[in-house]
Amino acid sequence: MNETRIIIAGYGGQGILLLGKILAQAAMQEGKRVTFLPAYGAEVRGGTANCMVVVSDEEIGSPFVEQADVLVAMNEPSLRRFEGRLKPRGVMIVNSSLAQPPAGRATGAVSVPFTDIALKLGNARSANMVALGCCAASTQVVALKTISRILQDFAGKTNKQLGEINQQALLAGSKACTPGASQR
Amino acid sequence: MEKIYAHPQSLYNVSSHYCAGCGHGIAHRLVAEAVDELGIREKVIAIAPVGCAVLAYDYWNFDCTEAAHGRALAVATAIKRVRPDNVVFTYQGDGDLAAIGTNETIHTANRGENLTVIFINNAVYGMTGGQMAPTSLIGQKTATTLKGRDPALQGYPLKISELLAQLPGVKYVERVALISPAEINKARQAVLLALRNQIEGVGFSLVEMLSPCPTYWGMSAQAAMGWIKETMIKEFPLGRIK
Amino acid sequence: MSGNDAIAEGAIRAGCRFYAGYPITPQNELTAYMAEHMPESGGVAIQAESELAAINMVFGAAAAGARAMTSSSSPGISLKQEGISYLAGAELPGVIVNMMRGGPGLGNIAPSQSDYFQATRGGGHGDYRCLVLAPASVEEAFGQMFEAFDRADRYRNPVIILGDGMLGQMMEPLSVSPGRIKSYAKPWALTGCKGRAPNIIRSLYLKDGALEDVNLRLQKKYALMRRTEQRWESACLDDARVVVVAYGGMFRIVKGAVRKLREAGKKIGLIRPISLWPFPDRAFEPLLKKRLSYLAVEMSYGQMIEDVRLALCTRQPIEFLGRAGGGIPTEEAIIKKIKTML
């Protein structure tokens, strides 16, 4: 059985749930089994946000991720909260613009300044898409082009310009964490 | 020879369970006559309350249901929304409409549901044994206000009709009294208008009827009529409120 | 699609044409979905002023012959109990969705299964039963709406869908298949008495013996439901030494744990009650001859376990693992517990 259990966390307003939803949708379009479980709380903006995505080639048991294969941490508090839930060989993806990756993690740490990259592209709010690109590239859980297609459909409905930036963000994220790329 | 009286088709020809001198019998009949006059017996759906009138369906010859205590207007809202071509009315006492059901009453009125409400105000809980109602008068002795209603302890008579008249969703409110042929005739006209409003799509219409309860007022039937005329009307003035 | 959305879409496709609800987390998406999509189907969706009003609107809509539903979460369901009792007493069909959260009191908004007693034992006053179905996935929740409305009409009885906050919030792929809808004649409905004697819908019976007769009729109906509506899913019972019993969202976590144990060669079986009332006693009948250990796992401190005990005629050893108030038994904890039983 090939199953990837993912936790995505950050602060409210960073587009954490959208990141997770697009990831889940991509997995679905690729014919995989998938669950998406948002943490729902009283907070709307400014609080913490996290969600759990499980992608599998078999029927999924628990949608609740106790032990994660992948952690995407978009800020420092989220990293601290969830790093203990990452499996020893799990992949830690850290937004180094807003979080200090733990020193001494030998394997599986990907640290990329998602927010800085998004700012350079013109919209800090696209940091989630940079992270998504990075997550896809470093875990291979879904193909970049599947995500790109979803973003395209999405942009058609809403904002063309934002769609453009999101596509660039996705690409930038994937490039930033492919092996050999500079990791701050 | 001209026929000047007939038993309404909408009212079963049976004796009622109501006390001697109770106003419910008159009110039931007024409703039945109005339904006949408008020719809507086969379209009417009535909602009986919890209270003395819970058995209204034993007297009315049309479709009826009973609602949980206070919830008549929630039930009515749904029936009317599901069947907009039917004529839907609730028949509720003061406890049902203005105490336990105040929330449903205000919000149904505020949604402007196209419904008709017959509101029987006899200033007392009848079925349960004569306790204080939200509309009991100051000083009125009841099973739960042995020394008379004291505003410091039990507040004031609730004028729910005046309250409802403030709401934009409410189109017609009138208070009548079941105390004399002249006043009962006015009540008849009010019921007709409140039902006609619904048929014409005007909106939420309510008729409040001051109604005698000789049993729990501790009076003769005649004295009860007199008490409405002399005392109750001062607190609850008659006429069109909206 | 999220569980909440899937339930709403399933209901509309199952012919629900009246919805009334009141906001409460974690089922708000359901109310919003109904507000958006019910009018497209020519139905009515009302945001009621309270849970009391909402369930009584369901009473009215059902009395008028419509397929009607309300939804809420635990504290709101407590408020609806009066209305559910009236539906049962007046023998009106209606569907009530409870996406359970932590209690007692205001509790919290985390997933929970602590309303099992309330749903399966009656909840409101009087001697009545609701059919209770517990979906374990978004897809199943969608499909169960067809069943819920069908059974509600068939038995003229309230049906409860008992989910939890996790199921309501989680998203899973859903292939929307057109379900079959059987329509039931409702000669008892309030439609206006044109061409017939007046219909009366009531739950008040004051004449000597009348209410007892009504109750006997209800009991007959419940007995029929017990015979025909037991539903469950089971796996790996043939060689099992320990049988784990769980329902709804909890089952998902248990299933993961059992899969791992079986991969390690441990002989663990699984039973998932799908109908909680009637409880699927029959799932346990073939096992009664064997000497097995049982484990009930719940997001509560032990409610379903009482039905498991009854199903086992209290003759077999049964242990319990549960957490409530927002705590969810983890896969790891389940595995650890089962290992102590082997």
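The longest helix of chain B spans residues 181-199.
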